[in-house]
Amino acid sequence: MDLYKTLGVERGADAKEIKKAYFNLAKTHHPDKGGDAEVFKGIQRAYDVLGTDESRNFYDQTGQVPGENGAPTQDGGGMPGGFPFDLGGIFGGMGNMFGGNPFNGPRGPAGPPSARRRGKAPPKVHEINLTLKDFYQGRMFKIKFERQKFCDLCHGDGYTSAQTCDACGGVGHSTVRMMMGPGMMVQTQMPCGPCNGSGRKPGPNCASCSGKCFMNQEKSLDVVIEAGTRPRERIVFTGECSDQQEYAEAGDVHIQLNEADEEIQWKRDGNNLKASLAVNLRDSLLGSTKMIMDHPGFETGCTIVIPPGSIHQTVVVVKGAGMPIKGSGQKGDALITLLVTVDAAEQAAILKNHELLRTVLSPSV
User: Fold this and answer.
1) Which of 11, 29, 39, 365 is the most buried (most CB within 10 A)?
2) pLDDT for residue 43 is more than 70
3) Residues whose CB falls within 8 Å of the CB of residue 260, separated by 6 or more in sequence, listed in order
4) Tens digit of pLDDT for each residue in 152-205?
């Protein structure tokens, strides 16, 4: 039976995924929850093997569970006899016939956690909704939060001194023997359990962090939004995330700026602002001056001059009344689409003066 399938995880699943899968299954299949005892026994067996690095490595290499069906235990036990030999002697170094080195390097991941960290942690993205006025005028605000940082004294190891592991003598691995068939036994090397393959065992807990590896830190970031900033732009604060044991550098904080939902007439279109304006027939034919409210740059409204003879869907352009163009000192334009309507009074006037209008509007000969 495939133990990974039993837990419902992929072979590349990390320890957190395996633990989570086990607890989710236990909620359903544990006998105390009304589950089948035999089914839960299989789930427990799978977690016992995959939940420990040594036994999982052994299972991945051999397909066997340590101590079952003649498989050796993790301390190197097993059936005596046969022809013991070191796989490294055949394939060179620490290689093995099951594909790849079971741990990192010839002596495993030696050294404290700080020595094994590599690369930079992924960024954390925080989204903030801003009004059109915020994007138009610019804004500044502070974000306060608490993050965890590696202890200054132990650098996130949890201890400041270490000693050679007694179990493996500092080499970081132990030798196990496996039956490959009748009369044939091979031996290979597995990471040492007591020191987790490092070859060293940590000393007393760090006096500064009490072995917790981290210290809490209050942090404040000044978020400056320039006038004319576009939606979905990001402001990046380098290395301001919490430290993580897996990475040498903390990730970046990304502040993503989104548009808030607003019930206003103006909508942004690049560097321009767009709106629509309903006008009656009289104002469209004779011309008029109107005011549109909610403009982010005009508290008392934006003045719109309607030229005489305007028709439905005419676009009136107000130069320089659009969005600021970031870093240039210039602005886009305001584009107002006229929606011409004919009210009841105008309809009555048209009917009453039909012949006169026909004469006035007829093309001159």
Assistant:
1) 29
2) yes
3) 129, 130, 131
4) 999 999 999 888 888 888 888 877 766 665 556 677 777 887 887 778 888 899
What CA–CA distance (Å, rounded) separates 7 from 29? Answer: 12
Q: Tell me what percent of the residues of the chain surpass a pLDDT of 90.
A: 50
Each domain of the chain, given as residue ranges in start order, spans 124-157+211-259, 267-361
Give which of 243, 249, 254 is closest to 146, Cα–Cα: 243
Q: Do domains 124-157+211-259 and 267-361 have the same CATH topology?
A: yes
Residue 112: name the closest of 18, 197, 219 by CA. 197
Determine the Cα–Cα distance for residues 144 and 329; give it in Å rounded to an integer: 31
Write the CB contacts of 105 (distance below 8 Å, at least 6 apart in sequence): none
Distance CA 257, CA 259 (A): 7
Q: Checking DSSP bridges between strand 184-191 and strand 162-164, what pairing results, if any? A: unpaired
Q: What is the CATH number of domain 124-157+211-259?
A: 2.60.260.20
Tell the CATH topology of 267-361.
HSP40/DNAj peptide-binding domain (2.60.260)
For residues 165 and 155, is the Cβ–Cβ distance under 8 A? no
pLDDT in tens, 220-256: 999 999 999 999 999 999 999 999 999 999 999 999 9
If pLDDT is split at 50, 70 and 90, which confidence band does 116 have? confident
Q: Residue 341: name the closest of 303, 284, 297 by CA.
A: 284
Is the CB of residue 97 less than 8 Å from the CB of residue 62? no
Contact 46, 180 (CB under 8 A): no
